[in-house]
Amino acid sequence: MRVMYLVKSNHPGPPTPELGEAMQKLADREIKAGRMLDNGGLMPVSAGAQVRIQDGQLSLIDGPFVEAKEVVGGFAVFELRDKDEAIDLRHCQISEINRTTAGRAGETAAAIER
Asked: What is the domain extent for residue 49?
């Protein structure tokens, strides 16, 4: 089962050096274990754009955007047995990372297999 974890933060900007180190250590471990397929951080929302279609009209809005309480700061893609393993692994990872910093959370979503 392919699973994507979205890493959310209520802190704008890049992670602290301590958090970056903890996340890299976790990623290295998961890659070596053969579970993590891909991961990455995202640029600040001010560097992005929104593309929308409303009433058949395409619109583009460049950043910066209204400040959000929570933003997606990164992602990780895993190959796991089932939803239970995905939830258990995510719980362990969030617990490990939150020892380094507070205010980070994540969502777990199953990907549609092709």
From this structure: 2-110
Q: Nearest-5° angle of CA 83, CA 85, CA 86? A: 60
What's the confidence (pLDDT) of residue 39? 93
In tens, the pLDDT along 36-88 reads 999 998 887 778 888 889 999 999 988 766 667 777 888 999 999 998 998 88
**How many structural domains comprise the chain?**
1
Rg over CA atoms, the chain: 16
User: At 61, which CATH number?
Assistant: 3.30.70.1060
Contacts of 28 (CB under 8 A, 6+ apart): none
Helical packing angle, 17-32 and 83-98, nearest 10°: 150
